[in-house]
């Protein structure tokens, strides 16, 4: 490689737009996922660059992938993280085909362009350039690619439970943040509330126990909970949102069963075990006031909030890189969504930074797109952050 060739010059020779288009044309809507097809595409790119990697198949059509660049010198371990799956395209009509990667006036359209194949491929290319320059830094960098993020971090859980990912100092997750630095995000509790009442003829409702009314009373109690008053400097209060409700069979029968799912988003000030106690106490109180009734609480997903110190090395390094590239607003922020970081943080204590190209408000939207210029900026920023971070020597752990 020409020693004078910087990342911008190098990148233009890698056909970055064509690579991302190829990824968008690979349908990884979850469910069912089918992420293996995209993982194999990424593996081929890594193999072409001569980067060691390993594919970890899970259920049919699904897989994680880990790639590793080792400098041969003692230093820190940094992880680049991204997911392969996307949400569905929705019922609304798209202006451009959702799986074509069509480019119009500097934008690429398609499902996953912003969330988060654009960020993933920015990382992949930055990782590949980092491999070309591995004599210039120390320690090692890993690329951790997961399946099933959109349905609760299934791939990240498999990655950690099966010890596919080693201990790390810091991790960058390439979710779309418009290159802003997200150092905190909410945790999530998904619960199913099952209300059992007593059926009766609708003309004699006093003879039964309406399970739908019980569900209504239950959620009303949650809405009045003091849990929603918890404060955090970067995140909003805890929220309780009913996302699905089912109950009743006929218009003239008092329903004896109703179930609802509740999406609870928590900030780091809230302990999930405290919320689970609240949910059970509320169930006991509501059911106890209605004879012949009961309420069951089933936990569907339990992932903690993420918080990284503004003083951490990875955050300071990212701030410096953005400043050097003309960004003045480098104040770290929080996000109300959750990421694979919730899973990773349950198993390891490394610092986690979320940043990447793409407008966060476009995630999961019809006509999702990414600015091609921002996609390319992502490659440059990821490389510069990694190269600077892995040139530091003030680490507690040292890898080779």
Automatic annotation (TrEMBL):
Pfam family, one: Peptidase_M20
InterPro entries in alphabetical order: ArgE/DapE, Bact_exopeptidase_dim_dom, Peptidase_M20, Peptidase_M20_dimer, Peptidase_M20A
Keywords: Amino-acid biosynthesis, Cobalt, Diaminopimelate biosynthesis, Hydrolase, Lysine biosynthesis, Metal-binding, Zinc
Domain Peptidase M20 dimerisation: 183-286
Obligatory cofactor(s): Co(2+); Zn(2+)
Keyword Signal: no
Family note: Belongs to the peptidase M20A family.
Protein name, as recorded: Peptidase M20 dimerisation domain-containing protein
Protein species of origin: Brevibacillus choshinensis
């Amino acid at each position: 490689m020409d020693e004078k060739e910087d990342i911008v010059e190098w990148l233009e020779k890698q056909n970055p737009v064509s690579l991302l288009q190829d990824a968008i044309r690979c349908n990884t809507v979850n469910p069912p996922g089918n992420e293996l097809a995209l993982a194999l595409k990424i593996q081929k790119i890594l193999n072409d660059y001569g980067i060691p990697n390993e594919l970890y198949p899970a259920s049919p059509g699904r897989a994680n992938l880990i790639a590793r660049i080792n400098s041969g010198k003692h230093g820190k371990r940094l992880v680049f993280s991204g997911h392969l799956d996307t949400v569905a395209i929705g019922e609304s009509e798209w202006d451009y085909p959702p799986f074509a990667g069509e480019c119009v006036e500097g934008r690429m359209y398609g499902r996953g362009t912003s969330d988060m194949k654009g960020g993933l491929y920015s990382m992949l290319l930055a990782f590949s350039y980092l491999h070309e320059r591995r004599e210039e830094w120390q320690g090692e960098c890993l690329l951790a690619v997961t399946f099933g993020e959109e349905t609760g971090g299934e791939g990240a859980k498999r990655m950690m439970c099966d010890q596919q990912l080693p201990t790390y100092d810091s991790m960058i997750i390439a979710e779309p943040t418009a290159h802003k630095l997200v150092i905190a995000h909410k945790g999530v509790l998904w619960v199913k509330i099952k209300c059992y009442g007593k059926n009766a003829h609708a003309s004699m409702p006093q003879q039964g126990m309406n399970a739908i009314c019980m569900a209504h009373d239950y959620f009303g109690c949650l809405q009045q909970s003091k849990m929603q008053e918890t404060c955090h400097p970067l995140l909003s209060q805890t929220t309780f949102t009913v996302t699905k409700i089912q109950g009743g069979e006929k218009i003239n029968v008092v329903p004896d069963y109703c179930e609802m799912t509740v999406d609870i988003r928590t900030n780091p000030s809230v302990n999930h075990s405290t919320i689970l106690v609240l949910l059970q106490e509320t169930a006991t109180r509501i059911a106890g006031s209605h004879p012949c009734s009961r309420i069951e609480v089933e936990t569907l997903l339990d992932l903690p909030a993420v918080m990284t110190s503004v003083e951490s090395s990875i955050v300071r390094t990212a701030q410096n890189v953005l400043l050097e590239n003309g960004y003045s607003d480098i104040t770290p922020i929080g996000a109300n969504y959750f990421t694979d970081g919730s899973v990773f943080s349950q198993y390891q204590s490394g610092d986690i930074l979320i940043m990447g190209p793409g407008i966060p408000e476009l995630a999961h939207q019809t006509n999702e797109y990414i600015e091609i210029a921002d996609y390319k900026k992502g490659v440059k920023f990821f490389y510069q952050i990694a190269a600077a971070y892995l040139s530091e020597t003030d680490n507690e752990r040292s890898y080779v």
